[in-house]
Amino acid sequence: MPTPPPPYPAIAELDALLGAMSVTGDARRRQLGMVRRELEAALRQGILPAPARGSLRHLLGEETLGPYLRRAESGALRHRLVAGRRPPTSAHTNQARLICLDLLREAAGLPALRPAAAGTPDLRPVPAFAQLSALRRQLDRDLAGTLSPGRTRLTAVLALVLDTAARSGELTGLRTTHLTAGRRSVYVERRPQHGTTAPVTGVRLPLSPLARAALDRWLAVRADLVASAHGTSRLWVSLRPNHAGLPDENGKAVGRPAGMPLEENGLITSYRRGRARYGLQHLLPAKLEQLRRAAEQQREARPG
């Protein structure tokens, strides 16, 4: 059955804009999809000015976005219920929503939102440098013992984040060919988070003895996993069989063996689950992005 057209001309224009945008990162694409759903819900609920229905420029105008943001932050535009209700959205979601709106306005030829109209939400706090040092010591102790495949992968991910301050999308883009012999350094493609026009730039970064040891352990585990999945050069791969998320022509789930490339959402999920599973809540913040920003601040504070 064909998909019905969107009921508002402004949403049709928004869909065309989203289709033409070049956005890096699965997480940002999901956030843009959230904003698109919320805007259509706000139009359906009749809380936006009438001109917002017929024109993308009116839909993304500040006179429209004020009531939209208030309604969205209240949780009333949530796509799914949470414990049977629609609670207010988190500060992190509110910040992501503002970033997405500026991306959409930029793509539509509109200026960035003014702070007075958009607000300036606080970023989640990051771990102190002393906590990062404690994390390094814990990872070093872990590597001296026996580790499960899941903890081996998480240890290598954490060590790389501490050394490179790489974003989740940058991590999932890594390949084994990005590592030099002996794992002395790694090539990272920097993908700026706050825009679609900034070019992707590559940088080669040195790796600490901790990261080299963690990668040695992970690459040994990875080799067995990849051998059963017909090979990939991606550095991070899945640990268990799963499914592709789309049915085959007979409506059955398409199986995927262990050793398939790990996507950004999978990497973030493995961080969140590993933090709880391995008792690392006292060393790791709730979000991988918080750890990345702490590592970035530490790198910037180093002399030279």
Textual characterization of the structure:
- The protein has 304 residues and is mainly α.
- 50% of the residues lie in helices and 7% in strands.
- It has helices at residues 9-20, 26-44, 56-59, 62-74, 91-107, 115-118, 129-143, 149-164, 168-172, 209-227, 264-277, 288-301, and strands at residues 185-190, 201-206, 242-247, 253-256.
- It has a two-stranded antiparallel sheet. Strands 3-4 form a two-stranded antiparallel sheet.
- A hairpin with a 5-residue loop joins strand 3 and strand 4 (253-256).
- Helix 8 (149-164) packs across helix 10 and helix 8 packs parallel to helix 12 (288-301).
- The longest helix is centred in the N-terminal third of the chain and has 19 residues, at 26-44.
- The protein is elongated, with a radius of gyration of 22 Å.
- 27% of the residues are buried.
- Mean pLDDT is 85; it is low at 116-121.
Quickly list its features.
two-stranded antiparallel sheet, mainly alpha, single chain, 304 residues
**Which range best describes the helical content: under 10%, 10-25%, 25-40%, 40-55%, 55-70% or over 70%?**
40-55%
Beta-strand percent range: 5-15%
Mean pLDDT across all amino acids: 85
- Whole-angstrom Rg: 22 Å
Characterize the largest beta sheet: strand count, sense, and whether it forms a barrel: 2 strands, antiparallel
Which oligomerization state do the chains in this entry correspond to? single chain
Which residue ranges are poorly predicted, with pLDDT under 50 across at least 5 consecutive positions?
Answer: 116-121
**DSSP helix count?**
12
Give the strand tally.
4
Distance between the termini: 62 Å
SSE run: HHHHHHHHHEEHEEHH
